[in-house]
Write a structure and sequence with these properties.
The protein is mainly α. The chain has one domain. Helices cover 72% and strands 1% of the residues. A two-stranded antiparallel ribbon has the order 1-2. Helix 1 packs parallel to helix 4 and helix 7 runs antiparallel to helix 8.
């Protein structure tokens, strides 16, 4: 039995898992159909889905994962919301609490498959487009390619967060998420640099996202280090930063500038 919750009876666990699987089937079908409806109807439709469409679908899949985790955790889990590893380390419960107890622990990895797959497809399609943007400097193209590779690696590594519970090893449970917090805003910065028509609003948004991400990483590392006289940043400060970061992460893909390919470059490619 893990700290912070009581194990479920076999029948309760079965009902919870089946509920989660049913929600996954319904929500993921809705997400994929909503984002790729034209290509479901006409598989050979051109142009193919844009990188931004894959990124949007990954965010929608993650939202579906959060909704399902919330339903399963609040309905079936016997989690003690006041005394659990997340609350003990950080001083408050963050969104990860929704994935850390059964039956959510058995269903969340299925959702993450879709999230990670769509992130990988984003990175692949974005790299294809990047290779056609001959007007960009070599250094920017290399940096953008590196950011896409890093995002793929982090998306794959995030599975460790779901495999290792916080009561087992908080560092291993959190480290891939910390990497994601940094890797995610970097791709928006790369797009901002690639966009020759970028606005000041986009520049400010990318800067704020990166700044908030850096602060969040620092706060998380402080909690993980568990200093004797300073275990974590006060929840009154850390929780708002956490919520702002989550809001930015969920909305940024829909505000991300779309780099354009010059028609002459596309013909040459």
């Amino acid at each position: 039995m893990s700290a912070g919750h009581i194990e479920l009876a076999g029948s309760e666990l079965t009902v919870g898992i089946l509920t989660g699987l049913a929600m996954c089937a319904v929500l993921e079908t809705a997400v994929l159909y909503h984002n790729f409806k034209p290509w479901f109807k006409k598989p050979h439709l051109t142009p193919s889905p844009s990188p931004e469409r894959f990124m949007a679908a990954s965010i929608h899949s993650f939202i579906a994962m959060v909704i399902t985790g919330a339903v399963l955790t609040y309905t079936f889990s016997r989690l003690d919301f006041e005394h659990n590893p997340i609350n003990d380390f950080y001083g408050y419960n963050n969104v990860c609490i929704l994935f850390d107890t059964a039956p959510s622990t058995y269903v969340s990895p299925i959702f993450w498959f879709f999230v990670a797959y769509l992130i990988v497809r984003y990175a692949v399609e974005d790299t294809k487009r990047l290779m056609q943007m001959k007007h960009l400097s070599v250094s920017l193209r290399r940096a953008s390619y590196g950011a896409n590779v890093a995002l793929v690696v982090v998306a794959a590594a995030f599975s460790v967060c779901l495999a290792v519970g916080p009561e087992e090893n908080m560092v291993m449970h959190t480290a891939p998420f910390v990497a994601l917090v940094i890797a995610f805003p970097v791709i928006f910065i790369m797009h901002c640099l690639q966009d020759q028509n970028r606005t000041m609003m986009v520049v400010v948004s990318c800067t704020v996202f990166m700044a908030i991400s850096t602060v969040k990483v620092i706060f998380t590392l402080i909690a993980l280090l568990q200093f004797e006289n300073f275990r974590h940043v006060p929840a009154e400060i850390a929780r708002p930063v956490d919520l702002i970061w989550l809001l930015l992460a969920l909305t940024a893909p829909f505000l991300m500038p779309t780099p354009s390919i010059d028609p002459s470059e596309k013909q040459i490619a």
